[in-house]
Amino acid sequence: MTNNWFRTVLNRLFLLVLLCLPVGLLLDQLAWTLVVGLALYIGWTLRQMLRLHHWLRTQPDGPPPEARGSWAEIFNNIHQMQRREARRNAKLQAIIERIQASTAALNDAVVMIDYEGHLEWWNHAAEKLLGLRAPADGGQHVTNLIRDPLFVEYFEKASFKEPLDIPSPIDMKICLQYTITRYGRGDRLMIARDVTRLHNLEQMRKDFVANVSHELRTPLTVVVGYLETMLDAEESLSPRWIRALRQMQQQATRMHSLLNDLLLLARLETTDSTSDDESIAVSQMLSRIRQDAITLSAERSHRITLTSETERYLRGIEGELHSAFSNLVFNAVKYTPDQGDIRIRWWEDQQGAHLSVSDNGAGIAPEHLNRLTERFYRVDSSRSTHTGGTGLGLAIVKHVLMRHQGRLEITSTPGKGSCFTCHFPTQRLTSEAYQAPGE
Ligand code: ADP
């Protein structure tokens, strides 16, 4: 095509020169005739260019201007390109409309947010669930419209691995789960699902567990009390009864700790974490826990050492941290053979504050490590039952740490021992002693 077009142009020029030749020779002004001929050709070309420019500027979608020869070919090619483009655009538009129609029909709110955080597009459900108004809210920053501090923190932290569950900005009774995905050049697709039903069910489950645990505590206290009274009069009982009563007392005590742990877990799940923060002298707390561990170990004679390398305070809730730390230390006592070594270390570095409890006990096989913090997960249920464990200890530790922006790291080598480390961020450390009001 290009070659043909070029040949046509050359042919035309050649024809022009051929035409100018006899006229130039006749007038004896060959050079001037050629100049005039070429000037005419340039003038004609300029005129075609102006027509092209005018067409493209005024009505590019209309038919091309009438032309002949090489310019006709140029006009036609451009016109065809435009029609192809228009067809492609129409196809794309149809696809976009179909996608928009299908997302509009979704029950979940879908919101497209640009790389700066401004709203670009949203579906009908977003208007119902998030209260967005079209077109007024278009171009607004998302945090101007969803102002919940938890959402603002989630959006600004820009780590969207976990979804966020918070009440809807227009109705506190609706619980929404936000998930955000990045695409393109930092743009974000936000999906908000109504999880009110799931949330209510979850709440019912938590309330049920808490209520049952609470209700069971009173009858159990009565049973334990009577068992104690009966065992006080041991001399009047036959050895068979004494054995039975002792076992009953042991199991009742286990049930008591189980109920206490269940209640603690329920409280950790249902209450707000940030309200009662105070400064906790961790090294003092650890030395008390060490004393309790020595008492628990008793004749099993573990060597329990404590190294505190920082005297700075940790901001948090004392009761919860005490439960978490003592769970780790008591587990080490429970799962380390007699005379074993248990080392407690509390230190601080650039990453934050850390507490590790390591032992040289039986250790844990790698396949169990990820599941240890699940409720009632036990590596060896017979050993745990024997040690009086509830199976909730590490679940409590995990929850407490989460409420203190911390995390639990578990490393273990079977046959050599285990190390449980709690990591806290630097902003949790403070040099000032502070007690929550009302203490
Ligand atoms: P439990 O009440 O059964 O101790 P936990 O949640 O505290 O429940 O611990 C879960 C399981 O993790 C335990 O059953 C035990 O098998 C294992 N475990 C915990 N700490 C240690 C440890 N220091 N050494 C070996 N195993 C441990």
UniProtKB/TrEMBL annotation:
Keyword Coiled coil among UniProt keywords: no
GO biological process, one term: phosphate ion transport
Limits of the PAS domain: 88-132
Protein's name according to its UniProt entry: Phosphate regulon sensor protein PhoR
Subcellular compartments: Cell membrane
A family per Pfam: PAS_8
NCBIfam families the record matches: phoR_proteo, PRK11006.1
EC number in record: 2.7.13.3
Keywords tagged on the record: ATP-binding, Cell membrane, Kinase, Membrane, Nucleotide-binding, Phosphate transport, Phosphoprotein, Transferase, Transmembrane, Transmembrane helix, Transport, Two-component regulatory system
InterPro entries documented for this protein: BphY/WalK/GraS-like, HATPase_C_sf, HATPase_dom, His_kinase_dom, HisK_dim/P_dom, HisK_dim/P_sf, PAS, PAS-like_dom_sf
Catalytic activity: ATP + protein L-histidine = ADP + protein N-phospho-L-histidine
PANTHER family: PHOSPHATE REGULON SENSOR PROTEIN PHOR
GO cellular component: plasma membrane
Function recorded in the entry: Member of the two-component regulatory system PhoR/PhoB involved in the phosphate regulon genes expression. PhoR may function as a membrane-associated protein kinase that phosphorylates PhoB in response to environmental signals.
Record bears the keyword Ribonucleoprotein: no
